[in-house]
Amino acid sequence: MRFLISLLFFALCPRLLLAAPIIFPALSGNSDARTLVVYSSLDEPLAKPMIIGFQRANPDVTVRYEDMLTGEIYDRIIKETDAGMKTADFAFSSAMDLQVKLSNDGYAQRSDLPMSDRWPAWANWRNTAYALTFEPAVFVYHKPSFTTEKPPSTRSEFVDYLKRQGANVFGRIGTYDIERSGVGFLFMARDQEQFGDIWDVIQAMGAAGVKLYSTSEAILERVADGRFVLGYNILGSYAADWAARHPDVGIVLPKDYTVVMSRIGLVPQASASPDLGRRYLEFFMSKEGQTIMARELQIAAVSPEVAGENTANTMQEMLGAQLRPVPVSPGLMVYLDQVKRSRLIAKWNEVLRLH
Predict the structure, then answer these.
(1) Quick one: DSSP state of residue 309?
(2) Cα separation of 128 and 300, whole Å?
């Protein structure tokens, strides 16, 4: 009976299952300060410097930060909007396809901002959905495990390493579970488009007992302490943050091609305070905000106003055609076609088992 009561309780109160929001009180100390509500897939420790920077420029704004998975952000905005409720003032997600779908389906509002006209064309969809980061998919490796040879730098080398090492690395490879990770699915879909032999890579990982996770942190934690020797298609921003704090984590930008995704920011149509949402988006796009992101969050800046190594401009100058950015456009929604999605996931699961 208690079990049934618990089930009913949580069914009626689904929000209790979500992580508790994190409140950043207004720096002014005003208890009646307006509140900016943010739904984001960026882990709160990484997001904190940006929030603090925003509040320094806007000391009379409280920030309510809700850290959730990308699918949860999309579902919650849809459900709240369709129910006639208010939703987030700003949504920031690494699931590019879902963010563009929100924009395309009328769940986001136009935001004409000072940097809109200067923002790269590939990173701006109708002044509604903006790519705010430039994040490559990288190989990560445990440095002490590669003292006698270099880590793989291409997908062909990745396959060769797994085949040569065999039992030595069995169960010590990690990547995203594309059924549970939006960014993992996006990377896999782009791999399928960019690399004709991608299924050889997936089969080799299956034979090596690859472990699947929905978060970057779970993989990087295991690479850092040596439980894993390699991680495939890991978000470079998280990898850079971990490498800065854990000297045994190494990073490789694949030389055959490097997919680059972006986190997309938008102001939902049903925002309670769209002016605050736009103010936060404007700060995100400003030189100050993008500099905080590049220097403190270890995420490459998109803004053409920001100089330095950790910027899209510098990376493109250095690596050229090796980088394959995913443009912000309705073309992303092809990944949401349920038939195509189901086929890709089915083949993924089938090939992983072929060993």
Answers:
(1) S
(2) 21
Distance from C-alpha of 180 to C-alpha of 178, rounded to nearest angstrom = 5
Distance CA 239, CA 288 (A): 23
Q: How many CB atoms lie within 10 A of CB 61?
A: 23
CA dist 259 and 115 (Å) reads 25
Residue pair 328/123 in contact (Cβ under 8 Å)? The answer is yes
The Cα 154–Cα 126 span in angstroms is 36
Bridge partners, 264 (sequence order): 93, 131
Other residues' Cβ atoms within 10 Å of the Cβ of residue 301: 28
pLDDT block averages, 10 residues each, the chain of length 355: 38 50 95 96 90 97 94 95 98 92 97 95 96 96 97 97 94 95 89 92 96 94 98 92 94 95 97 98 97 90 90 88 90 84 94 79
Predicted structure pTM score: 0.81
CA 20 to CA 65: how far, in whole Å? 9
Residues contacting residue 288 through CB under 8 Å, at least 6 positions apart: 53, 57
In sequence order, the 6+-apart residues with CB closer than 8 A to the CB of 97 are 182, 186, 332, 333, 335, 336
Nearest by Cα to 127 from 272, 328, 305, 332: 328
Closest CA to 73 of 37, 109, 98, 97: 98
Residue 254 CB neighbour total at 10 angstroms: 21
Distance between CA 107 and CA 34 in Å, rounded? 23
